[in-house]
Amino acid sequence: MAETDQERTEDPTEKRKQQAREKGQVARSKEMGTAFVLVSAAVAFMWFGGALFDGLRSVFQQFFVLDRAQAFDTSKMFEAFAIAFGEIIWPVLIIFAFITVFTFFGNSWLGGINFAWKAMAPKFSRMNPLNGFKRMFGVQALVELVKGIAKFLVVAVSAFLLLAWQHDNILQISMGQMPNMMANALDILLWMFLLMCCSIFLIVVIDAPFQLWKHQKDLKMTKQEVKDEHKDSEGSPEVKGRIRRLQMEMANRRMMQEVPKADVVVTNPTHYAVAIKYDDKGGKAPVLLAKGTDETAAKIREIALEYDIPLVQSPALARSVYHTTELEQEIPQGLFVAVAQVLAYVYQLKMHRKGKAKRPNKPASDLPIPDDLKY
């Protein structure tokens, strides 16, 4: 079938992924969370079950040695409950904390930590019976059914294999003596429980990649959606053009404010104009303050005349400076000789205006420009 724009064939953009996270749509594997809960519970009871067992034994001993007077004494009963609570509270808290940490880790490993307030908002569409029937008989429901059957088979097979493995040990328990018989039974029970819980990771190995693939598939976009999002993020061509025009106008205004600081303006004479400043005290090369063509060049010349800045016609130099030098940058070394002749003329012109020198001749229009800098 020919691909249409309505087919979701494009990978989701970063914006689409972020929007999905804000809605609580992240890859999650319930089986991974379940496996971590069960395994952590088994490990917690193996590590800290001894302390819990000692606490319970102490509680039972205290309650079994109460005489009739203590049993009917309210203060003694509350005292006994307080002692019992103190005996078992710390083992219970440690086991609970251990399971909580691994439960949090197991549920956030796939998809990361994500708090989505939008996901907590009530959705009346979920109360629609038709949508409920669709979820009950949809593809997702079929997948969950297959996973449920697979979990049952995995646990059942694991239980059978573990019982076959520990068959002789289980039979020998009845021939033991207390309390060793109880300790052996608990040890076998805990190890079987742990191994049965670990068997669920066989489902996790399949479910986790499937959830990642499904999440990626659900977020896929049509080509039109990608185009619309790109247009929204980048802006329409009209808006971008207007922004560029405003930026250029602001840059031109700032540039024009620098023209009065120039020592000379070299012109084409009409198509190009560059404003150059030289600080003889700084010991640096001449700097380009402003440049432009056509209307901008005319504006530079207008400001130069307004502030009595000398205008020097040198088409080759004006074009070379315009194309090779950016604003606030020094003139290339290859143009030093030509610019130096122009600045010497400007200096002599200033001295002439002060009555200290005769009027200088204008520099030749064909100033020496290296071939690699000619434009």
From TrEMBL:
Stated membrane topology is: Multi-pass membrane protein
Q: Where in the cell is it found?
A: Cell membrane
Q: Which GO terms describe its biological process?
A: bacterial-type flagellum assembly; protein secretion
- Name the InterPro entries for this protein: FlhB, T3SS_substrate_exporter, T3SS_substrate_exporter_C
Assigned keywords, A-Z: Bacterial flagellum biogenesis, Bacterial flagellum protein export, Cell membrane, Cell projection, Cilium, Flagellum, Membrane, Protein transport, Transmembrane, Transmembrane helix, Transport
What are the TM regions of this chain, as residue ranges?
Answer: 33-53, 88-117, 137-165, 188-213
Pfam families registered for this protein in UniProt = Bac_export_2 (PF01312)
Q: What is its main location?
A: membrane
Residues annotated as region Disordered? 1-25, 356-375
GO CC annotation, single: plasma membrane
Q: What does this protein do?
A: Required for formation of the rod structure in the basal body of the flagellar apparatus. Together with FliI and FliH, may constitute the export apparatus of flagellin.
Q: Which family does it belong to?
A: Belongs to the type III secretion exporter family.
State the name under which the record lists this protein. Answer: Flagellar biosynthetic protein FlhB
